[in-house]
Amino acid sequence: MRLLIVDQDPGARQALAHLLEEVGYRVIAEGDPEQALRRAVSDRYDLILCDVRLPRMDGLTFLRRYRADGGSAPMIMLSGASDEEGAIAAMREGAHDWVQKPVRVDEVTMTIRKAEEHERLRREVETLRSSVGAGTVNDLIVCESRVMRDIVDLASRVARHATPVLLTGESGTGKETIARAIHRMSPRSERGFSTINCASIPEQLLESELFGHAAGAAEGAGTEHAGLFELAHEGTLFLDEIGALPPDLQARLARVLDQGSVTRTGARDGRPVDVRLVAASSKSLEDAVTRGEFRSDLFHRLNAVRIQLPPLRERPEDIPALLAHFAGQAAHRLGRPISVTPSALAALSHYAWPGNVRELRNAVDRAAALGGDGPLDVKDFSAIGGNGNGNGNGTMKGAASLTGLDLKSQVEAVERQAILRALEASGGNRRQAAALLGISLRTLFYKMRRLPVH
What we know:
Layout: E1 2-6, H1 10-22, E2 26-30, H2 33-42, E3 47-51, H3 59-68, E4 75-79, H4 84-92, E5 97-100, H5 105-131, H6 146-158, E6 165-168, H7 175-184, E7 193-197, H8 203-211, H9 228-231, E8 236-240, H10 247-259, E9 261-262, E10 271-272, E11 276-281, H11 285-290, H12 296-302, E12 305-308, H13 319-334, H14 342-349, H15 356-370, H16 392-402, H17 406-425, H18 430-437, H19 441-450
Helix pairs in contact: 13-15, 17-18, 18-19
C-alpha cells in the first residue's frame, strides 16, 4: 500500500514515514503542498495523510484541489490540538478521518486500516453495480443437489426483506458465501457488504470494530472511530461465529437491533443505522442459550429466519460441479488448463470431506499448484486427510482414504454391516435406522446406493 504524507514539519514528517515503513507501508513524504499535490494527482497513492496546517495552502484547500483534479484516494488529516476545527471541516468535505498530533503508531495504523476497509467496501459496491444485473448468484453458489437448490431459493426469498438471518452449519460449508448471495440478491446490493469474525478479534478491539468509539473513550483512542454498523449503513453486516460474542457485546448488539441506532463507546448520543444483519455459527446457539453463554432474547432476534447448511458429505452430488468450478478458478490463476481424471473424481466423491467445501477448494488449489502437466489424478490429492505438514503419515492417511486400498474396502464393509443391522433392528424403517446410526436420512440413502445395501 502506497502512502503520501504531506506535513510541513520535517521532523514529524520523517518520523511518521519511518514508523509506517516499519509496519510495511511504502511511503513518500512531502513538505511542500504544491509539490505534494502534483505528486498526488500524477502518481497513484492508496491513501494520503495531510497536515491541517500547511504553508500557503491549508489541509482543507489541499483536499478540495486534490478532489477537483480528480484524486480519489482516501485522506486522513493530521491535526494539532489547536487545529481540530480544521480537521472536522475537512471531514465534512470528504476526508475519511483525522488523527491528533503527536501521532501514535497504533492509533494511526488502526485509522489507516479502517480507511483500507472503507475503500475495499467502496470498490466492492462499484463491482456489484457493474456485475449484479438482475441479482443472479450463479458465480457465487455452485450446486447441483436439491437441498442446496432449496437453500438458494430460500435465500432469494428472504433477501427481499430486512429480516435478520441466522446461518448454521459446520465450518467450511459456505455460510459466508450464502450471506454474500443474500446481499447480492437484496435491494441493498448497491451498498456495502461488511464482515467480521467474532471469534478472531480480542473483546476490546471487537467492541470498537463493531460499535466505534468517541475520542478519548479509552487509552490510545485519540480520535473518533466509526464502527462497522455505521460503515454498513443501508448495506449488510455479516457477523461470523456470533456465538463467540462476549456477553457485554451481546447486550449492546441486542440494543442496536431493538433501537435501530448505535452509540459509540464513550459517546452519549446514538446514531441511526439501517443495517441488514446476517449472523452465522458453526456451534449450536440453542445449547449456548441453555448453558447461559448466549442471550436468549438476542438468539430469538437473530433466529427470525434460519438457514441450515448441510455438510458436503451429505450432498455428494455437488462435488463434481464444485471440482469443475475450483479447477476453473485455478486454471485462470495459473494460466494453464486444469482438469481432473475420472478416477480422481470418483475417489474425491467418496471422501468424507470433514473440512467441507473449504477443504475441497484448498485440495484443488494445492493439487493444481504442485501437479505437473496433464489432468490431476488421485496421486495429486494424496495429502487429503493428512495433517497438512507434508510428512509421510499425513500423506499415507490421505492416500489410503482415496486410492481404494484395502483399508477403504474394510471400512466400507463395516459400514455396510452396520446399516444392515440397523435396518434389521428397525424392521426396515429407514428413518429409524438412520436415527440408530446417528446419521441423517439423506446420508443413509447415499450410503445405501454407494455400498450398495439392499
